[in-house]
Amino acid sequence: MGKFIAKRLGFGALVLFVLSLFVFLLFFVAPGDPARIVAGDKASAEQLELVRQNLGLDQPMTQQYLHFVGRAVQGDLGFSYRNQQPVSELILRRIPVTISLVFGAVILWLAIGIPIGIMSARHPGGFRDRMGQVFILLGLSFPTFVLGMLALYTLYFLPKQAGFTLFPPSGYKPFLTNPLIWAWHLALPWATLALVTAAIYARLTRGQLLQVLGEDYIRTARAKGLSERKVVLRHGMRSTLMPLVTQLGADIGLMLGGVIVIEQVYGLQGVGSLAVQAVRNQDRPIIIGVVLLGGLFIVLCNIIVDLLYAALDPRMR
């Protein structure tokens, strides 16, 4: 088990090394003045000189890269000269919003998608299966921003015109201040993100479970007199969990890097909206920081998925 974990950690470190090298080459070795790229087109000569000193652009390329990586490992992701703030502080201020949005939506889409997938697989070709497939098709067909705008119109603007409020349109309240207000402000973003993603998990659960329920050991379990509920949940779902865990790890890793569409629709000031503003303003230090942070989240989630594999399947150990 220790060797298995060491291999996964080593592979994750390799991925982060390749990502950091790619980012360094893209922003600091590409044609043009790296100081101008980092500081922006409107930077003064004094600012450019300060950037060159901070980045050590007068040093050999290898030392520049080691300096870049060393600062990133210590949590120093650079300095935003447009915002006049360290990038790490900007991201740390925004990341609670993104984490709250992602993990609340994860709980919802698992609670919705997996039961619908199980229901469809247990009644293939029947009415429940057709209803489940309708949900899957609608969820996969609706763009996230369309569903978000529809939710805002039906659950906020229409009730407001009638003189009452069901949900707030946007905003984020800290969890520790008041958990109920925190959840109330995130209810619409959670529902929007969860309904779209739940369709993916319902389809995946249905497809995997249909294959598993035709296996010999499932027929043996039924022949022993086990209830259908125990056959599906205890024996069928155990084999279905592997692809679900894989999909979940990838989704969480990607979304922690910024749920751009949802944050834009609901005006949430998370990592995704920070990345959009950075691209719009050509604030390259923030772009570099968000890319590195997103890569770190993806690597960590994949390592967690590999550890869950080992826990679920003894053959992996």
TrEMBL record:
Transmembrane segments: 9-30, 95-114, 134-159, 179-202, 244-266, 286-312
Stretches assigned to the ABC transmembrane type-1 domain: 95-309
Recorded GO CC terms: plasma membrane
Membrane topology: Multi-pass membrane protein
CDD domains, A to Z: TM_PBP2
Residue ranges the record marks as coiled coil: none
GO biological process, one term: transmembrane transport
Subcellular location: Cell membrane
Record-linked InterPro entries: BPD_transp_1_N (IPR045621), MetI-like (IPR000515), MetI-like_sf (IPR035906)
Keywords recorded for this protein, A-Z: Cell membrane, Membrane, Transmembrane, Transmembrane helix, Transport
Family of the protein in this entry: Belongs to the binding-protein-dependent transport system permease family.
PANTHER family assigned: DIPEPTIDE TRANSPORT SYSTEM PERMEASE PROTEIN DPPB-RELATED
Protein known as: ABC transporter permease subunit
